[in-house]
Amino acid sequence: MKISVTLATYNEEKNIAGCLESVKSVADEIVIVDGTSKDKTVEIARDLGARVIVRENPKIFHINKQIANDNATMPWILQMDADEKVSPELAEEIKQKIKNPDVNGYWIPRKNLFLGKFLMKGGQYPDYTIRLYRKDKGKLPQKDVHEQAEVEGRVEHLKHPLLHYPYDSFSNYLFKWKRYNSIFADQIKEERKNKNIIIKIWFAFSYLLIKPLYWFFLTYFRHKGFVDSWQGFVFSLFSAMRFPASFLKSL
Residue 48's pLDDT is what? Predict the structure, then answer.
């Protein structure tokens, strides 16, 4: 069985080489849809053997991910982000698991590096994400920034994790946090539209107070985010604060 590694990229020159080097042992082809990057992402990717399609950069980047999947020619898809890497152990596991004719997809655990530390608590590990699936059995809904692929038939779990390096600095984290909040704000605005005043008041109370308090308690205490030192506290705090920040942006 052969695998197409697919990505959507935008200004990923710092990450793309490491990502593509890590998938060499599993990729029979690499297909990238780039959202007209302003840096050297496309040049680096092509130098490393990827087939790159350049187009617009939609707000929901899963649109470009699905276009990459549609242009893949191998029976299996390994969907990656540019800031992720496949460890040698995961690569070997992937090559063995896709031989199973009865399984159409696999959830892969993911380790997330946050401010210099892989978060192992706070609901951040194993952080399963469905990234490996048969091309003719899986599709992205293309509706939400945190959505998962929808796969027909039997889906199982892999053991070894993807390694995720999403933020090279706290300022970079804040930039992405604000960008995701803008998308979340649009969803809140749409959800609140045409509702009566009572429901709108409930929305405000929920997003400004109930949801952030609940989420901080859930991640920092119930899921033991405090075990991850000060990085766990910062993550839980900003994760909770996305609710009031996005709500206020939706007004």
Answer: 97
